[in-house]
User: Fold these one by one.
Assistant:
Number 1:
Amino acid sequence: MNERWNLEPIYRGFDDPAFQADLEALKACVGEMTALAEILETLEPLEGLQRGIALKEQAEKVGGKLALYASLRQSADTKDSEPSSQMGRIMAVYSGLAAPDAAFEAWAAKLPDLLEIVAADEQLRDYQFLFRNMLEDSRHLLPGKCEEVVAKMKLSGGDAWSDLQQYLTSTVPVSYRGKITNLSSIRNLAYDPDPQVRKDAYAAELACYERIADAVAFSLNSIKLETISNCQLRGYASPLERTLKQSNMKRETLDAMLGAMDEYLPKFWQYLKAKGKALGHKNGLPWYDLFAPMGKAGKKYTAQDARDYLVRLFAGFDGELSQMVADAFDNAWIDFYPRDGKAGGAFCAGVECLGESRILTNFDGMFTDVVTLAHELGHAFHNQCLKGHRPLNRDYSMPLAETASTFNECVVMAAAIDAAEPQERLALLESQLQDTTQVICDIYSRYRFETMVFENREEQFMNTAALCEMMKTAQRQSYGDGLDESCLHPYMWVCKSHYYGPTFYNFPYAFGALFARGLYAQYQQEGASFVPKYKQLLRTTSVASAEDTAAVAGIDLTDKGFWRGALAGVARQIDEFCALVEGENG
């Protein structure tokens, strides 16, 4: 089986004639869009809308393909400077679309009967949701050439600072037990069964951050100030308001979810204290034991083992999903193993030109790595469900982005727990609880931290010490007495890439985890009849608000009761876990 993904079906390299041809095609598209923007006022509304949408579709197909390839190459080897250089070339061209695109959207938004024209035309009808959002977003567009200026300045501003954070965290040498390793590998040791390995790895991880923290602090401060300035120029009340609008999600939904989470946080603290006690700690769980395995450790998995397990398991849910999983493993969609220069963590990127996806993981053979693969393959299935949509209708909002991925996790963990012997059941149950704690407690701490950063950044530069103190404050608020306060993770802001891209790329994980749990509960009740509804829901995510998407499954997201129901299922698992560990120690 392949160890690395195959990108050659996209381009054979940056010297591939097809790459250069597409770059020229993108330049031509920018030129045509610029010319169109200059004559829009002379055109009949229908003609202007049709021509504008056709050019936007072309730019999305060609520009998206170019940028995706450069991004995937960069993630696979951040030490290679060529992808960054090529991305700069691509974005320099792509940024030329900002001004004419803004002009087109402003012109369209001023048409008094825009939505009626769109609904009546066969070429435009599919984009009714897009145009409704365009009307709303037009209030936040910058005048004249300002959109182009902002897009170009971002290349050497926020985007460059984000690249710096990724480069530093993927290349920083980590000294561990007399040897040098990388950050991805050292963070994987948090799952090691040996408690001394976990503790030593935690110490080595924190020590390595000291070498890069000041530079990354400049990245974070610069990105957040740019975001604040951008939001002010566009008339948003706050970065959070902008994030919610971009997410097609109501503030009432966020408040309902966070309110339910606040009510259930003490239950998670109960789990953390029970785990800490079982591991011999008296004052809550130290950070280095957050991911400590418990119960009977499962077997180590090869990539082939993971493939066979997931293909067989998902066949019981849906044949289409199972076949796609097999294709991903068999056709080199996945880059599996950690290595120097490779980006940490895991992600899935849709490759629309191929109707496929590409997945990056840092696979180490643990069952948690199999779950991570299932998670990313959920994103790939989500992408597959959207293949029938037009090019501008394939992006889904951040909160809904975690739906299929977390649903896959529910399928995998439920099956594994049901089939397990008592000791293995404890291990799997604890593994799922630690993951859920991450997307509830840890995500809440990240949301609180980012909120504090935005509240302070306009008035002050936050140095490393200040950011570390904010991080610890956020962790204390979210983890309560479940963690040992003397052993937190003050540098979590350094390693998490989510702070260096879209604003508030944190609460969507909690949303996804709880929304998927609610959907999985429906599947358990309805069985096979739920699957078509589930696929329809995934198809809806890119052409409807979060609230309207949930309504496909009969869910009201602004009702705190829905979120409480999802959390109640976790609470029952925590009670079972506590009973199991108390029985062991009794």
Number 2:
Amino acid sequence: MNDLIPSAPTARLIVVLGDQLSLDLAALKGADQARDVILMAEVAEEAGYVPHHKKKIAFLFSAMRHHAERLLAMGWRLRYVTLDDPKNCGSITGEIARALQDFCLTQVCLTEPAEYRLKAAVQDWARDRQVALEMRLDSRFICDHATFQRWAEGRKQLRMEYFYRDMRRKTGLLMQGDKPEGGKWNFDSENRKPAADDLFMPRPLRHAPDQITKDVLALVADRFDTHFGELHPFCFAVTQEGAQEALEHFVTEALARFGDYQDAMLEGEPFLYHSVLAQYINAGLLDPLAVCRRVERAYYEGSAPLNAVEGFIRQIIGWREYVRGIYWLKMPDYTQQNFLQAQRALPDFYWTADTDMACMASALRQTRDHAYAHHIQRLMVTGNFAMLIGVNPHEVHEWYLAVYADAYEWVEAPNVIGMSQFADGGILGSKPYAASGNYINKMSNHCAGCRYDVHQKTGPQACPFNPLYWDFLIRNQDKLGANPRLSQAYRTWDRMGDDKKRAYRQSATAILKAL
């Protein structure tokens, strides 16, 4: 792929990043296939700035190589730099500089990187080298930065629900004129059912590795053997066609029950009725609006109920667009927010899954094995526990960024810093998502097989979430006591007897010391 002749002086270098694997990419609009050169590169700097899950690296490298093959077949001039290329500079900016020199080019065009860190690096490099850089907005998102800024301006609270309604109006999804389908904007109250373990559970579509993927798996096994996670079995789609097949499989096999059970957790059932499509959407293999329109069609065809379809669409045009807006509105300082001044180190068992807490062990094992956990496992199990014990939110942020195949900083940081850890002090969420073991017992079957007793509130056999919940609230009362959504909890604490309060605090202290 690298034996191209130099280009004409007016030609451009078009950079396609690893999460921009779309044929409709903004940087490709108006490009000259005969003269412009596309650059794609696997670089150590991007693969290793956090210890990304082996499956995540393999997915992206294989998807990049397949995308490059498709671009070549379409007639594009393309340089693809593999990780093991002896000339590989190890960074995106280094590979841009090398390609400019090799092809006698002076102009660079790329779609805006999704992460602030990389965008700043490319802009700083271009300015220092006096390189002509055109950076185009990423048209794969529905709401651009300026539109989100206008929406946020002057608002005391940036609540997703109101933003989501604007996105429904803009896209026309599930709308009847200017009214929402079914008379309500949000059917979340119908989407909180615990799942019985005798329900039929579909599985996400499994894709057999082809030779390109097998080569990547061997590379990852060799170069990233110390990284987190299991590499095999590897079943992700790595092409647009494969991702589309995964979407169709979800719509026909799982969507109908997605809404009812989207918050449920079951031992040994990592996927339930979830789509497991986020890594394909975030990498560019699926267009988010097209995905929503396909899901919407299932409702109008009568194959999926409104609560399932609305709940799924809300996650994409509501939550996904919203957290991206928060990210770009609040960076570069957002990932360093620490409203509760939490300083504890992340426990080692987040990497090993070696814990007696059944819910934690289950979420951590499936994260290790599949590079996946659904939103309630991330928010109400692993995230909840980290917040209750007071882990430094930046450490939590870097862990989530590393371990999930769909994690990129623009989507992961607001979910962790804001939603999971309340480290932004309420910019994103109206209260901390703190919960005792009762919530987990209600939404899962983990507690029945746990060595701890969810019904015991204190003592060595008590579910750790129980005393930690109260300890968290009292430890942070100076910052959270005035929060109206926590007023009932603080009133409950005030009514407790001194012996009960003391037992909660002593039990929590014992757990924290053991960590």
Number 3:
Amino acid sequence: MDRMKELVELLNKAAESYYQKDSSIMSDFEYDKLYDELVALEKETGIVLGDSPTKKVGYTVLSSLKKVRHESRMLSLDKTKDVERLKSFLEDKEGILSYKMDGLTVVLTYNNGALVSAVTRGNGEIGEDITHNALCFKNIPFRIPFKGEMVVRGEAVISFKEFERINSLLEGEEQYKNPRNLCSGTVRQLDSSIAAKRNVCFIAFSLVSAEGNSLGDLKTDWLDYLDSMGFQTVIRRVVTGNTVEDAVKWFEDNIPQNEFATDGLVLTYNSISYSQLLGSTAKFPRDSIAFKWADEVAETVLRDVEWNTSRTGLINPIAIFDSVELEGTTVSRASLHNVSIVEQLKLGIGDRITVYKANMIIPQVAENLTESNTLVIPDKCPVCGEETEIVGSADGKVLKCTNPNCKAQRLRALVHFVSRDAMNIEGLSEATIEKFISRGYLDNYTDIFSLEKYRDDITQMDGFGKKSADNLLGSIEKAKKVALPNFIYALGINHVGLSNAKLLCKKCDYDIDRIISAKQEELEEIDGFGEIIASAVTRYFSYKDNVDLVKKAMEYLSIVEPEEGINKGSLDGISFVITGDVHIYKNRRELKEEIERLGGKVTGSVSSKTNYLINNDVNSASSKNKKAKELNIPIISEEAFVEMIK
């Protein structure tokens, strides 16, 4: 099994290097040799691991997740923060102590060795069928050598490293708060290719049943059996009343090394027959109990709040305080996440605050004992000095830099500039743009049009060659002929999507000079613009640097005359609001772009001018749903939207 896992990792790294990075870490001969060895081992053991390169999976897109009733109710665990309670719980019995994984509980069912279903815990009685996604999890065995039915319970999780990678690719308001939220949203997607890209893992913590098994009465033996089948099982230790306290300390000491988030420990009796004999209460099973570490809280003084502009334009607040010792480390900084948290804590410099470590890892401000509420939210970006604005997001109010040419946002702005509905320059991926920035080829978007002078250097770069360089520069040359709305959209002006860019161009007769000099009152006359969008446009062109860049770009570009009916689309004049999780589209931004591409508008709040609210949970009690119902505005799902635009 160890050799199989080693081969899977080696072969996947080789494939990634060859297909995605245009480089080879091993010869074709060596790859084929290792691949054949893996095939032979899979044939010998009857086990095929979830991320094996021998496994071919076609991605599936569903219209909805099927609801499934569990054969037996899945209960929550009783909880304690007292180690003495764990000792008294065990008495003279032997137990298993393990990490309590902070993810989404999933039940897997195998039939004659094949994975046939994966169902979430749901409310404990009814879960959701996510089999199409489980088949794409990174480490679930796709096939095992077991005859009959076998049921395995575990936790779907996403690693801290993967969480950070995925969040770095998302816009600020789309970013996930923690790995658990990301995992929950991922495994419930209708498109299985999304789960495949996010490296979801499955950590087994219980073998529920194995038809006709002769594994004995100990849960440890059952877990060892799962190990032998290729499952990744939960980290555990066998304990008694005399050793459980030391074991708790051992788990605590090893938290910093954990790849996945945990939110405590689980103690269960090792004997299966004894566990079954105990039964359960109305709320909890009697054979298990959860242990939560009591948060170590320290009091300190807030000395400053740093505001850091990210590459998405979000300006994130960081609390700086007098150093304190927490969970064995010295801490002097903690993220405050957003403006809403700052306001809730009523912060002011010099306030006495308490801090702790969430999940014993991430420093957080727990409470403000002073509540002076004197902290000033900056009205200027700390990087470029331009104006900031407070906008709404899924997790509350956030502070944003309004300048898309801010140096901190340079990478994100350039990625947007070359995107499909903007300048549509193929070959300029985010990774390539990042390389060009680091080499000094790109400082702002106009530099893209003079990359020809670096042709020889680009040809010699890793991942490039003469053909790749020719294709990229040819794509740039092609992009110099562009419709004005696409160029305006490419600038990344706040609140100006492609549909609004078309409305703006039409209002100004497709004259860039008129757009630059337009007055706010004039733009407010555009149907659907209003004060916010009009102000964003005039503010953007009020900065000399922005105007200079636009005029420089015009020296390279040839503006294509608008086609007749350029402002017409299947959604022309229709206004939408999007809320909640999406399943068909990658994220809400992609759905928004689709609406705007078809001539529709997307706003952030429900009003009398809204035509449709898109929410997959049409019966949600959210404020937007309530507002839509009050105004008799239809609430539709993604599926209904897709049908609408057919």
Number 4:
Amino acid sequence: MILLAVALIPFGVMAQEVKSPDGNVVVKFYLDKTKPTYTLTYKGKTVCKPSHLGLTLAKDKHANNGDREQDLLEGFTVADTQTSTFDETWTPVWGQYKTVRNNYNELAVTLDQAKMNRKIVIRFRVYNEGMGFRYEFPQQKKLNYFIIKQENSEFAMAGDHMAWWIVGDYDTQENPGQTTRLSEIRNTIGKCLDRQPGDQVDGMSDAVTGNSSTTVFSETGVQTALQMKTDDGLYINIHEAACVNYATMHLNLDDRNMVFESALTPDAVGNMCYMQTPCNTPWRTVMVSDDARTMLSSYLIYNLNEPCKIEDTSWIHPTKYNGVWWEMIVGRSSWDYTDELPSVRLGETDFAKCKPNGRHLANNKDVMRYIDFAAANNLSEVLVEGWNIGWEDWANRWKYDVFDFQTPYPDFDIKMLNEYAHSKGVRLMMHHETSSSVTNYERYMDDAYSLMNKYGYDAVKSGYVGDIIPRGEHHYGQYMNNHYLHCVTEAAKHKIMVNAHEATRPTGLARTYPNLVGNESARGTEYEAFSGNKPDHTVVLPFTRLQGGPMDYTPGIFETDLSTWSQNKHKIHTTLVGQLADYLVMWGPLQMAADLPENYAKHDDAMQFIRDMAIDWDDSQYIDAEPGAYITVARKAKGTDNWFVGGKCNEAGHKVTVNFDFLEKGRKYECTIYADAKDAHYDTNPKAYVITKKVVKQGDKINMVEAPGGGFVMSVIAK
């Protein structure tokens, strides 16, 4: 097969062309005068119009001449082109599928910048569901150490597409998602940025809301992964893969021409990335399909990452857990031990002399209660937040010495509680909130991981609330991305799994480091205790946030009216069955039963699904999907013949027919159906559900009706 076809494009410039294995995706590369340029089409339809590539370099005061080097934007000639085909099948440690096929055609273009005597390579990999490209910098005398001031990668859209997006921000990904045309982004963000003190804020809907740390950089800036849909039915997704030693990419829209340009997260002095050749950037990805289900089933982002670097992965395992958390988020209990201290000094404050406030939940009695609940309900771990000293002033802006991650409060017996958990067949899950004092965390990290080894912890939830120390750095800059990966690689040495909250959004690195079992990196269930999440939230996130890896969304809230057990007046914006559906729609090997034990006891029959459900899969088949509207998926539990089916929808409700063609021929299955009741509604009647059982076989069909903000789940167990 000839992959490289030299074609004459309309304005008379010779182009290199590479196609996907099925021929539907076509990338053309050429020099517009001397500027690197590409186009992308799918089944003959334009996805990306002519889009320029390149990088702007910063002035380097350490260079001999003290001047800024010529940018890597133009002045290029094509020195060489290489094409190849690649096809492999690899086995994930965990995920949606038992095996993953990695099949692409590749074009690598070497460019000479004669004036500066420099070379760069732009490499394209084209898959059936899209493409990725990156910049590569061979080692060379005239390009050794250099600083990137701006990356100028363009994605020129062919129209004013519908888009599902979150405002671009260097420090938070927890603003509410928006659904607008591309042309409406500026006005949507601008209204929020123009707000005056005292103006009313809709925390569930406004594009920019309050957060502990936020840096919006543009009225047309959005985060990746960005999901779009064209008027003629193409689904387009822009993201990045394998973000290593580089700043996180956002997108800035020229809304007059509908052209996105990459917008990297700067450091404290305004630079983006510090590079030393040989090196490369992350992959910039564009997924495209005329079927929304492809956006959910594709492993393109993972395939652009390196294979697993952990030789022995036997200690990495899927985890269902509960924890000492939701009661504190809602506001009935606290992380801190005492109200007597306005501040804490590590190594000096004597908590044994302090009066307990009576609200501290990370105490021996309550933790044992959660351990008992986990043991009785097929949950393997218990997260405990607030166990360690320092929470009294942890949120103080830019405090350096916040926690030592080793010293428990007087009412938390770390040795006894771990022994008690192990005697019940349960482990405790560690919690490391850094308060974004990153240098402090790195100072204690090895000792903290060693403490976990001592007491048998094998997983840690870390957090990065607040402004970053070193001061002036952002959550998604090169410095912090290196830190997050450092945590993962150091944890692997201790055989510890990592679940980082407030960290950068994933870019498929869990293929390389599968002990990265989850991230938050988006607006999770905790916001249901604050301003709320819209009913469509979890049928948008799989198209956006989950493209690069699973989310620790913490679903399973059965008591949807928080005022029934606390002073919090908020309500959950899904039905109870919709909460069950989140476990399947929001896939991942780390799933929390987030509600209180006593709230599950009120609905023990629905709790049975959480006990039974798998969280790691041999196969996943998306039955139907539409961004922001509905998702229905069937998943086969790893190593079994059992299936779990789930559907979730927005406030409009949804009807779907589940066809059991995926079942093994000639075999019968016991199907337990958890469905919204006929009068269920996320706002007016959220806890109304019905449970039925029937025997099904291959070819059977069941019609399901999902209530507004609701869903359904099925346990389909082989007989």
